Amino acid sequence: MKQYPNSKNDKKERYLEKRNLDYEKYVHNYYAEDYYKNASILDKIKKSNDIDVGFATDYANPFCKVKIEFYSSGLTPNMTNLFKKYPELKKYVGVKGKKITLFDHDLENDDQVLQLFTPDGKPLSFAGVKDDKVGEITGVADYCQKMKAYNEAHPADDTEN
Predict the structure, then answer these.
(1) Burial level of 5, CB count in 10 A (0-12/13-18/19+)?
(2) What is the pLDDT of residues 60-86, one digit of tens each?
(3) Using an 8 Å Cβ cutoff, are 105 and 61 in contact?
(4) Considering just the CA atoms, what is the radius of gyration of the chain in Å?
(5) What whole-number distance in Å separates Cα of residue 49 and Cα of residue 23?
(6) How far apart are CA 145 and CA 36, in angstroms?
(7) Confidence check: pLDDT of 94 > 70
(8) Any idea what DSSP says for residue 62?
(9) Is the pLDDT assigned to residue 106 strictly greater than 50?
(10) Which uninterrupted H or E stretch holds 148?
């Protein structure tokens, strides 16, 4: 049977190949010690620091240390750290629906990314931030270390994270 380059089988193979790459990226990120794998702890940190912007981070991008994606509707005029590092973003304050992608070569973990979005350039605070399983945390490295110890002590619970 003759194969055509745009046949359904070809599309299926490309889909499976992409899916496999996405899975490899997921596995890398799941075990990487540069981000919070539990989204609820990230939300607690954002809430305690008055950060009201949703963003996604990708530490597996080959072109930079971290790729950060968010929408312009989350930008506020008081994000001084972000505008100091990326002054061209000021023009998007108040603009709705524009997806912004940053390729950063300096930021190394979610704590540093969160610091970009703190209002009025305030330092990122972990006061009162607690995870249900590991208690109080002081940052992403502390969280990952405590979570790793917790998962080793409670292997049955590891599937929940």
Answers:
(1) exposed
(2) 888 899 999 999 999 999 999 999 999
(3) no
(4) 19
(5) 32
(6) 11
(7) yes
(8) T
(9) yes
(10) helix 140-153
